[in-house]
Design goal:
single chain; alpha+beta; Ybab, Chain: A; three-stranded antiparallel sheet
């Protein structure tokens, strides 16, 4: 493979990665904790869009609410990780093919 061809492949890959990152910024996931007591929505780039806490959850006290929010965030992050892996593997999965 000549250098020109290699450079063209690298530029094509960079373009695909950039497009995938843009797409991930527009995808959302929801992390849910305690049967919906707290729901965290975030993008595929880990930007938190909203945190919804059911009013009755607040009666559990600050420490418990804080833990539930963290659990919902972790759930959303895990889902975002899966989304990112699927999106990026669709691009990088075809490396070396031709």
């Amino acid at each position: 493979m000549d250098m020109e061809s290699l450079m063209a492949q690298a530029q094509d890959l960079q373009s695909k990665i950039s497009s995938a990152q843009d797409a991930l910024a527009n995808m959302t996931v929801k992390g849910i904790a305690e049967n919906g007591a707290v729901v965290v929505s975030m993008t595929g780039k880990y930007d938190v869009l909203s945190v919804v806490i059911k009013p009755e959850t607040l009666a559990l006290g600050a420490e418990k609410v804080s833990q539930i929010v963290m659990d919902a965030y972790k759930d959303a992050k895990t889902k975002a990780d899966v989304l990112i892996d699927k999106t990026m593997s669709a691009i990088t999965g075809d490396l070396g093919e031709e």
